[in-house]
Amino acid sequence: MSTLATTVNGLKFKNPFVIGSGPPGTNSKVINRAFKEGWGGVIAKTISLDCSKVVNVGPRYAKLHSADGKEVIGWENIELISDRRFEIWLDEFKQIKDAHPDGMLIASIMEEYNKDAWCEIVGRCQEVGVDAYELNFSCPHGLPERKMGAAMGQDPSILEEVCSWVMAEAKIPVWAKMTPNVTHIEDPTAASLRAGCDGVSAINTIRSVMGVNLETLRPEPTVEGYTTPGGYSSKAVKPIALRMVMEIASLIRKDFPGRTLSGLGGVETGKDAAQFILLGSDTVQVCTGVMKFGYGMVSQLCEELLEFMESKGFETLDDFRGLSLPYFTTHAELVRMQTARKAAEAAAKETMVRNDAEWDGDNFVKQSNDLSR
Fold first, then answer.
1. Positions marked catalytic
2. Nearest CA among 79, 73, 75, 88 for reference residue 21
3. pTM, entire model
Protein backbone atom coordinates (compact mmCIF):
# COMPACT_ATOMS: atom_id res chain seq x y z
CA MET A 1 0.00 0.00 0.00
CA SER A 2 1.58 3.31 -1.07
CA THR A 3 1.84 6.20 1.36
CA LEU A 4 2.38 9.93 0.89
CA ALA A 5 3.65 10.50 4.44
CA THR A 6 7.18 11.85 4.54
CA THR A 7 9.65 13.27 7.05
CA VAL A 8 11.71 16.25 5.95
CA ASN A 9 14.28 17.89 8.25
CA GLY A 10 12.61 16.08 11.13
CA LEU A 11 9.19 17.51 10.22
CA LYS A 12 6.43 14.93 9.69
CA PHE A 13 4.24 15.77 6.70
CA LYS A 14 1.15 13.61 6.12
CA ASN A 15 1.66 14.32 2.42
CA PRO A 16 4.29 16.29 0.48
CA PHE A 17 1.89 19.04 -0.61
CA VAL A 18 2.62 22.45 0.93
CA ILE A 19 0.84 25.70 0.17
CA GLY A 20 3.47 28.17 -1.00
CA SER A 21 3.82 31.58 0.57
CA GLY A 22 1.39 34.09 -0.93
CA PRO A 23 -2.28 35.03 -0.94
CA PRO A 24 -3.51 31.49 -0.06
CA GLY A 25 -1.80 31.86 3.35
CA THR A 26 -2.72 35.46 4.08
CA ASN A 27 -4.31 34.94 7.55
CA SER A 28 -5.30 32.30 10.12
CA LYS A 29 -8.75 31.80 8.62
CA VAL A 30 -7.49 30.55 5.28
CA ILE A 31 -4.55 28.65 6.79
CA ASN A 32 -6.93 26.77 9.12
CA ARG A 33 -9.08 25.98 6.10
CA ALA A 34 -6.07 24.62 4.25
CA PHE A 35 -5.24 22.23 7.07
CA LYS A 36 -8.85 21.09 7.28
CA GLU A 37 -8.78 20.32 3.55
CA GLY A 38 -5.75 18.09 4.08
CA TRP A 39 -2.62 19.98 3.04
CA GLY A 40 0.57 18.57 4.53
CA GLY A 41 1.93 22.03 5.27
CA VAL A 42 1.31 25.72 4.80
CA ILE A 43 3.87 28.47 4.37
CA ALA A 44 2.22 31.68 5.54
CA LYS A 45 2.40 34.89 3.54
CA THR A 46 5.75 36.59 4.08
CA ILE A 47 5.94 38.80 7.16
CA SER A 48 8.35 41.38 8.54
CA LEU A 49 8.67 43.20 11.86
CA ASP A 50 7.39 46.49 10.46
CA CYS A 51 4.44 46.33 8.07
CA SER A 52 4.13 50.10 7.76
CA LYS A 53 6.43 50.10 4.72
CA VAL A 54 4.15 47.65 2.89
CA VAL A 55 1.50 49.32 0.73
CA ASN A 56 -0.27 47.17 -1.86
CA VAL A 57 -1.93 48.61 -4.95
CA GLY A 58 -4.74 47.45 -7.19
CA PRO A 59 -5.13 45.86 -9.56
CA ARG A 60 -2.09 43.75 -8.88
CA TYR A 61 -2.71 40.66 -11.01
CA ALA A 62 -2.60 40.00 -14.74
CA LYS A 63 -3.31 36.73 -16.54
CA LEU A 64 -2.13 35.07 -19.72
CA HIS A 65 -4.88 32.96 -21.30
CA SER A 66 -4.70 30.11 -23.78
CA ALA A 67 -5.57 30.90 -27.40
CA ASP A 68 -9.22 29.92 -26.86
CA GLY A 69 -9.40 32.08 -23.74
CA LYS A 70 -10.62 29.21 -21.58
CA GLU A 71 -7.51 28.52 -19.53
CA VAL A 72 -5.10 30.62 -17.48
CA ILE A 73 -1.59 29.44 -18.32
CA GLY A 74 0.40 32.39 -16.92
CA TRP A 75 -0.16 34.65 -13.95
CA GLU A 76 1.67 37.84 -13.00
CA ASN A 77 1.44 39.59 -9.65
CA ILE A 78 2.89 42.76 -8.17
CA GLU A 79 1.65 41.98 -4.67
CA LEU A 80 3.95 42.76 -1.76
CA ILE A 81 4.45 40.86 1.49
CA SER A 82 1.86 40.94 4.28
CA ASP A 83 0.63 44.35 5.36
CA ARG A 84 -0.74 42.99 8.65
CA ARG A 85 0.95 43.80 11.96
CA PHE A 86 3.59 41.40 13.21
CA GLU A 87 1.91 41.03 16.60
CA ILE A 88 -1.29 39.86 14.92
CA TRP A 89 0.65 37.21 13.07
CA LEU A 90 2.25 35.95 16.29
CA ASP A 91 -1.19 35.51 17.86
CA GLU A 92 -2.49 33.75 14.77
CA PHE A 93 0.53 31.43 14.49
CA LYS A 94 -0.13 30.23 18.03
CA GLN A 95 -3.85 29.80 17.36
CA ILE A 96 -3.19 27.81 14.19
CA LYS A 97 -0.77 25.43 15.92
CA ASP A 98 -3.19 24.93 18.81
CA ALA A 99 -5.93 24.01 16.33
CA HIS A 100 -3.76 21.89 14.01
CA PRO A 101 -0.78 20.50 15.94
CA ASP A 102 -0.06 17.92 13.21
CA GLY A 103 -0.07 20.45 10.36
CA MET A 104 3.34 21.78 9.43
CA LEU A 105 3.17 25.58 9.77
CA ILE A 106 6.10 27.41 8.22
CA ALA A 107 6.73 31.11 8.68
CA SER A 108 8.01 33.00 5.65
CA ILE A 109 10.11 35.91 6.85
CA MET A 110 11.83 38.83 5.16
CA GLU A 111 13.88 41.67 6.55
CA GLU A 112 16.34 44.31 5.45
CA TYR A 113 20.10 43.89 5.63
CA ASN A 114 20.03 44.23 9.40
CA LYS A 115 21.29 41.51 11.75
CA ASP A 116 19.25 42.63 14.74
CA ALA A 117 16.01 42.59 12.73
CA TRP A 118 16.62 39.08 11.39
CA CYS A 119 17.52 37.74 14.81
CA GLU A 120 14.48 39.34 16.41
CA ILE A 121 11.97 38.00 13.89
CA VAL A 122 13.45 34.50 14.13
CA GLY A 123 13.42 34.46 17.92
CA ARG A 124 9.91 35.78 18.32
CA CYS A 125 8.30 33.51 15.73
CA GLN A 126 9.72 30.31 17.11
CA GLU A 127 8.48 31.23 20.57
CA VAL A 128 4.86 30.83 19.36
CA GLY A 129 5.41 27.37 17.91
CA VAL A 130 5.92 27.58 14.16
CA ASP A 131 7.53 24.42 12.81
CA ALA A 132 10.07 25.92 10.41
CA TYR A 133 11.16 29.03 8.55
CA GLU A 134 11.34 29.89 4.88
CA LEU A 135 13.59 32.88 4.25
CA ASN A 136 12.21 35.02 1.43
CA PHE A 137 15.25 35.96 -0.65
CA SER A 138 13.30 35.77 -3.86
CA CYS A 139 10.36 38.15 -4.31
CA PRO A 140 11.21 39.82 -7.66
CA HIS A 141 9.41 43.11 -7.13
CA GLY A 142 8.98 43.75 -3.40
CA LEU A 143 11.01 46.54 -1.78
CA PRO A 144 14.26 46.16 -3.77
CA GLU A 145 15.20 49.69 -2.73
CA ARG A 146 15.63 48.26 0.79
CA LYS A 147 17.70 45.31 -0.51
CA MET A 148 14.89 42.93 0.39
CA GLY A 149 13.67 39.83 -1.46
CA ALA A 150 15.42 39.02 -4.72
CA ALA A 151 17.67 42.07 -4.35
CA MET A 152 19.26 40.21 -1.44
CA GLY A 153 18.95 36.71 -2.92
CA GLN A 154 20.85 37.69 -6.07
CA ASP A 155 24.01 38.45 -4.07
CA PRO A 156 25.50 35.18 -2.73
CA SER A 157 27.87 36.94 -0.33
CA ILE A 158 25.08 38.91 1.36
CA LEU A 159 22.83 35.85 1.26
CA GLU A 160 25.40 33.71 3.04
CA GLU A 161 25.93 36.32 5.73
CA VAL A 162 22.22 36.77 6.42
CA CYS A 163 21.64 33.01 6.51
CA SER A 164 24.43 32.68 9.06
CA TRP A 165 22.66 35.26 11.27
CA VAL A 166 19.45 33.25 11.06
CA MET A 167 21.09 29.90 11.73
CA ALA A 168 22.78 31.24 14.85
CA GLU A 169 19.33 32.09 16.24
CA ALA A 170 17.06 29.40 14.82
CA LYS A 171 16.15 26.30 16.81
CA ILE A 172 13.89 24.88 14.11
CA PRO A 173 14.53 23.94 10.44
CA VAL A 174 15.29 26.73 7.97
CA TRP A 175 14.72 26.77 4.21
CA ALA A 176 16.07 29.56 2.01
CA LYS A 177 13.80 30.40 -0.93
CA MET A 178 15.74 30.88 -4.15
CA THR A 179 15.05 33.45 -6.86
CA PRO A 180 15.09 32.22 -10.48
CA ASN A 181 16.19 35.68 -11.60
CA VAL A 182 19.88 34.75 -11.65
CA THR A 183 22.21 33.21 -14.23
CA HIS A 184 23.23 30.20 -12.13
CA ILE A 185 20.82 29.22 -9.35
CA GLU A 186 23.49 26.95 -7.87
CA ASP A 187 25.44 30.00 -6.63
CA PRO A 188 22.88 31.40 -4.14
CA THR A 189 21.86 27.84 -3.26
CA ALA A 190 25.40 26.93 -2.28
CA ALA A 191 25.77 30.17 -0.32
CA SER A 192 22.69 29.45 1.81
CA LEU A 193 23.68 25.82 2.41
CA ARG A 194 27.25 26.78 3.34
CA ALA A 195 25.73 29.05 5.97
CA GLY A 196 23.95 26.06 7.46
CA CYS A 197 20.40 26.22 6.11
CA ASP A 198 18.65 22.86 6.34
CA GLY A 199 17.25 23.17 2.84
CA VAL A 200 16.09 25.43 0.03
CA SER A 201 12.87 26.16 -1.82
CA ALA A 202 12.79 26.84 -5.55
CA ILE A 203 11.60 28.59 -7.51
CA ASN A 204 9.88 31.84 -6.71
CA THR A 205 8.23 33.83 -9.49
CA ILE A 206 10.06 35.00 -12.61
CA ARG A 207 10.42 38.73 -13.21
CA SER A 208 8.11 39.61 -16.10
CA VAL A 209 5.91 42.02 -18.00
CA MET A 210 2.62 40.30 -18.80
CA GLY A 211 1.77 42.36 -21.85
CA VAL A 212 0.44 45.60 -23.29
CA ASN A 213 -3.23 46.39 -23.78
CA LEU A 214 -3.55 47.21 -27.48
CA GLU A 215 -6.60 49.40 -26.90
CA THR A 216 -5.13 51.64 -24.18
CA LEU A 217 -1.45 51.06 -25.12
CA ARG A 218 -0.74 50.64 -21.40
CA PRO A 219 1.20 47.72 -19.89
CA GLU A 220 -0.70 45.44 -17.53
CA PRO A 221 -1.62 45.28 -14.72
CA THR A 222 -2.27 49.01 -15.06
CA VAL A 223 -2.27 51.10 -11.88
CA GLU A 224 -3.03 54.78 -12.41
CA GLY A 225 -1.93 54.27 -16.00
CA TYR A 226 1.43 52.72 -15.07
CA THR A 227 2.86 49.39 -13.94
CA THR A 228 6.06 47.74 -12.75
CA PRO A 229 7.56 44.35 -13.66
CA GLY A 230 6.11 41.62 -11.50
CA GLY A 231 6.40 37.92 -10.69
CA TYR A 232 5.31 35.35 -13.29
CA SER A 233 3.82 32.02 -12.16
CA SER A 234 1.29 29.31 -13.10
CA LYS A 235 1.74 26.29 -15.38
CA ALA A 236 3.76 28.16 -18.02
CA VAL A 237 6.77 28.36 -15.66
CA LYS A 238 6.93 24.64 -14.86
CA PRO A 239 9.65 23.75 -17.42
CA ILE A 240 11.90 26.48 -16.02
CA ALA A 241 11.18 25.40 -12.45
CA LEU A 242 11.97 21.78 -13.27
CA ARG A 243 15.29 22.75 -14.82
CA MET A 244 16.33 24.72 -11.74
CA VAL A 245 15.10 22.03 -9.35
CA MET A 246 17.25 19.53 -11.27
CA GLU A 247 20.30 21.79 -10.97
CA ILE A 248 19.77 22.36 -7.24
CA ALA A 249 19.12 18.68 -6.51
CA SER A 250 22.27 17.71 -8.41
CA LEU A 251 24.28 20.23 -6.39
CA ILE A 252 22.83 18.98 -3.11
CA ARG A 253 23.64 15.36 -3.94
CA LYS A 254 27.20 16.27 -4.88
CA ASP A 255 28.20 18.82 -2.26
CA PHE A 256 25.52 18.98 0.46
CA PRO A 257 24.14 15.48 1.11
CA GLY A 258 21.33 15.43 3.63
CA ARG A 259 20.01 18.90 2.81
CA THR A 260 16.52 19.14 1.39
CA LEU A 261 14.62 20.76 -1.46
CA SER A 262 11.05 22.01 -1.63
CA GLY A 263 10.13 22.32 -5.30
CA LEU A 264 7.55 24.65 -6.77
CA GLY A 265 6.58 26.38 -9.97
CA GLY A 266 3.47 25.64 -12.01
CA VAL A 267 2.28 22.58 -10.08
CA GLU A 268 -1.40 21.88 -10.75
CA THR A 269 -1.68 18.08 -10.80
CA GLY A 270 -0.33 15.03 -9.04
CA LYS A 271 1.59 14.17 -12.20
CA ASP A 272 3.28 17.59 -12.03
CA ALA A 273 4.29 16.80 -8.45
CA ALA A 274 5.65 13.40 -9.45
CA GLN A 275 8.01 15.12 -11.91
CA PHE A 276 9.34 17.46 -9.22
CA ILE A 277 9.95 14.52 -6.88
CA LEU A 278 11.63 12.49 -9.64
CA LEU A 279 14.02 15.44 -10.00
CA GLY A 280 14.85 15.54 -6.30
CA SER A 281 12.14 17.49 -4.44
CA ASP A 282 11.33 16.40 -0.90
CA THR A 283 8.11 18.42 -0.75
CA VAL A 284 6.09 20.14 -3.46
CA GLN A 285 4.59 23.60 -3.05
CA VAL A 286 1.50 25.00 -4.75
CA CYS A 287 0.50 28.68 -4.65
CA THR A 288 -1.01 30.00 -7.88
CA GLY A 289 -2.73 26.65 -8.34
CA VAL A 290 -4.66 27.21 -5.11
CA MET A 291 -5.69 30.66 -6.34
CA LYS A 292 -6.99 29.07 -9.55
CA PHE A 293 -8.64 25.90 -8.23
CA GLY A 294 -9.20 26.37 -4.50
CA TYR A 295 -7.95 24.69 -1.32
CA GLY A 296 -9.84 21.48 -2.08
CA MET A 297 -7.48 20.68 -4.97
CA VAL A 298 -5.22 18.86 -2.50
CA SER A 299 -7.48 15.81 -2.59
CA GLN A 300 -6.95 15.41 -6.33
CA LEU A 301 -3.23 16.07 -5.99
CA CYS A 302 -2.92 13.25 -3.46
CA GLU A 303 -5.10 10.89 -5.49
CA GLU A 304 -3.17 11.44 -8.71
CA LEU A 305 0.23 11.11 -7.03
CA LEU A 306 -0.83 7.86 -5.35
CA GLU A 307 -2.11 6.54 -8.68
CA PHE A 308 1.27 7.25 -10.26
CA MET A 309 3.13 5.56 -7.40
CA GLU A 310 0.97 2.44 -7.46
CA SER A 311 1.26 2.17 -11.24
CA LYS A 312 5.06 2.01 -10.87
CA GLY A 313 5.16 -0.08 -7.71
CA PHE A 314 6.52 2.72 -5.51
CA GLU A 315 5.48 2.42 -1.86
CA THR A 316 7.02 5.65 -0.53
CA LEU A 317 8.25 8.95 -1.92
CA ASP A 318 11.81 7.87 -1.12
CA ASP A 319 11.42 5.05 -3.65
CA PHE A 320 11.45 7.45 -6.58
CA ARG A 321 12.85 10.74 -5.30
CA GLY A 322 15.62 11.86 -7.65
CA LEU A 323 15.25 8.76 -9.81
CA SER A 324 15.43 10.79 -13.03
CA LEU A 325 18.51 12.83 -12.09
CA PRO A 326 21.11 10.38 -13.51
CA TYR A 327 19.64 10.84 -16.98
CA PHE A 328 20.97 14.38 -17.41
CA THR A 329 24.32 14.95 -19.07
CA THR A 330 26.08 17.43 -21.35
CA HIS A 331 25.23 18.04 -24.99
CA ALA A 332 28.72 16.88 -25.93
CA GLU A 333 28.04 13.57 -24.18
CA LEU A 334 24.72 13.22 -26.02
CA VAL A 335 26.61 13.62 -29.31
CA ARG A 336 29.21 11.06 -28.24
CA MET A 337 26.59 8.50 -27.18
CA GLN A 338 24.51 8.91 -30.32
CA THR A 339 27.56 8.73 -32.59
CA ALA A 340 28.72 5.58 -30.79
CA ARG A 341 25.28 3.99 -31.06
CA LYS A 342 24.99 4.72 -34.79
CA ALA A 343 28.49 3.36 -35.39
CA ALA A 344 27.63 0.18 -33.49
CA GLU A 345 24.44 -0.25 -35.48
CA ALA A 346 26.29 0.27 -38.77
CA ALA A 347 28.95 -2.28 -37.78
CA ALA A 348 26.30 -4.80 -36.79
CA LYS A 349 24.48 -4.30 -40.07
CA GLU A 350 27.69 -4.72 -42.06
CA THR A 351 28.46 -7.94 -40.21
CA MET A 352 24.96 -9.23 -40.88
CA VAL A 353 25.19 -8.44 -44.59
CA ARG A 354 28.61 -10.10 -44.83
CA ASN A 355 27.38 -13.22 -43.03
CA ASP A 356 24.34 -13.41 -45.32
CA ALA A 357 26.54 -13.07 -48.42
CA GLU A 358 28.86 -15.85 -47.22
CA TRP A 359 25.94 -18.15 -46.50
CA ASP A 360 24.39 -17.47 -49.91
CA GLY A 361 27.72 -18.25 -51.61
CA ASP A 362 28.24 -21.49 -49.69
CA ASN A 363 24.69 -22.52 -50.34
CA PHE A 364 25.11 -21.87 -54.12
CA VAL A 365 28.24 -24.04 -54.27
CA LYS A 366 26.44 -26.85 -52.40
CA GLN A 367 23.45 -26.72 -54.76
CA SER A 368 25.76 -26.80 -57.85
CA ASN A 369 27.57 -29.90 -56.55
CA ASP A 370 24.30 -31.65 -55.96
CA LEU A 371 23.16 -30.97 -59.54
CA SER A 372 26.44 -32.27 -61.04
CA ARG A 373 25.83 -35.67 -59.53
1. 139
2. 79
3. 0.93
